[in-house]
């Protein structure tokens, strides 16, 4: 069977490599949040838990890498062209930003207690993963729509990928002079996923997708990704470690880890990656469902308050796996109901589009 181009996004079959990478990130995310909320202080000292804490920092960078790769794939659709898909990507980006801020809603009681104060504004406008992905998607789709020519796109994506992380220390120093909403979005300690430097992961993924678009999925792309990831990890391990939130070393280290995961997803047989791909396809739903359960929402307490850090490792793991299974089941049900309610609507363009439709090499 002949192999198609790596960015052919014509109708199925759908290659599950990136969906599998996202599925792995979803698994790590739900388990990590549950362990963080439920593990007792003694269980946190477990050697395996300590190793896991160091690895779970890869989850968000991996999501952003995959999202950046996906927007390039979506904008390169042969059937619609870049401008045809642009509107759908913008709507997707705005939806992600809205949902991200919705998850930050503290409830009317907290609003009344805090009043119209900076403390309330800081809580309402805290910048999390969904807002970061949505804003990066909006900028990336606009840049790819306006930029013409392979060299210009390469240059612009490269400047964004490298420039954002290099500018992060200066932006964080200038941040206190900005309005609090912009301060939270661009760089501030109160937000976990500020645009500087987190958006750089998104544009690294976009740049790689653009540079590797002529290679076939599977071994050709996997070898390049593995070589780049190993090279970046090797380079960072020779330099002094810097775990500061604006550290270029930390971004390079996480990018290297993410590329290794993407390479493994490319090398793995399709039958294996299809086990994780369904989680990746429903990653947004799982994200939206599990966070209120673990941490609560709008004044309703979650597991972190109802149970608290009291469980040992095995019960906490079982709770995490149970929560993951429940969220996945509800997400599948909601997707099916949506299809039954709106059968005429095409499938939405996701921020985790797969590599392409070709088979493994």
UniProtKB/TrEMBL annotation:
The chain crosses the membrane at residues 20-39, 51-73, 124-147, 154-175, 195-215, 222-241, 247-268, 275-298, 313-331. Pfam families: Acyl_transf_3 (PF01757). One of its GO terms (molecular function) is acyltransferase activity, transferring groups other than amino-acyl groups. It comes from Hyalangium minutum. Keywords: Acyltransferase, Membrane, Transferase, Transmembrane, Transmembrane helix. Residues 17-329 form the Acyltransferase domain. This is Acyltransferase family protein. It comes from the Bacteria.
């Amino acid at each position: 069977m002949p192999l198609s181009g790596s960015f052919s996004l014509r109708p199925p079959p759908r290659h599950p490599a990136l969906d599998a990478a996202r599925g792995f990130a979803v698994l790590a995310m739900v388990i990590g949040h549950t362990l963080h909320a439920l593990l007792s202080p003694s269980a946190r000292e477990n050697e395996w838990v300590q190793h896991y804490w160091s690895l779970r920092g890869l989850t968000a960078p991996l999501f952003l890498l995959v999202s950046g790769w996906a927007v390039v794939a979506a904008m390169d659709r042969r059937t619609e062209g870049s401008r045809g898909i642009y509107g759908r990507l913008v709507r997707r980006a705005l939806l992600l930003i809205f949902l991200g801020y919705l998850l930050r809603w503290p409830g009317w009681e907290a609003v009344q207690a805090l009043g119209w104060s900076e403390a309330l504004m800081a809580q309402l406008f805290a910048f999390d993963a969904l807002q970061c992905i949505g804003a990066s998607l909006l900028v990336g789709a606009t840049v790819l729509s306006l930029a013409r020519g392979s060299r210009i796109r390469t240059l612009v994506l490269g400047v964004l990928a490298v420039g954002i992380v290099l500018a992060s220390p200066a932006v964080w120093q200038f941040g206190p002079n900005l309005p609090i909403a912009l301060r939270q979005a661009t760089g501030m300690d109160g937000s976990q996923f500020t645009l500087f430097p987190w958006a750089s992961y998104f544009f690294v993924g976009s740049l790689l997708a653009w540079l590797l678009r002529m290679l076939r999925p599977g071994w050709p792309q996997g070898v390049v990704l593995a070589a780049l990831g190993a090279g970046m990890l090797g380079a960072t391990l020779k330099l002094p470690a810097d775990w500061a939130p604006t550290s270029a070393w930390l971004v390079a280290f996480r990018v290297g880890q993410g590329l290794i995961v993407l390479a493994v997803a490319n090398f793995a047989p399709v039958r294996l990656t299809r086990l994780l791909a369904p989680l990746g396809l429903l990653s947004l739903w799982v994200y939206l469902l599990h966070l209120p359960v673990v941490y609560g929402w709008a004044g309703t307490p979650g597991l972190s308050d109802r149970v608290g850090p009291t469980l040992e490792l095995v019960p906490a793991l079982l709770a995490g796996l149970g929560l993951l299974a429940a969220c996945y089941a509800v997400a599948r049900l909601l997707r099916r109901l949506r299809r039954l309610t709106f059968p005429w609507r095409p499938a939405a363009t996701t921020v985790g589009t797969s590599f392409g439709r070709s088979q493994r090499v």
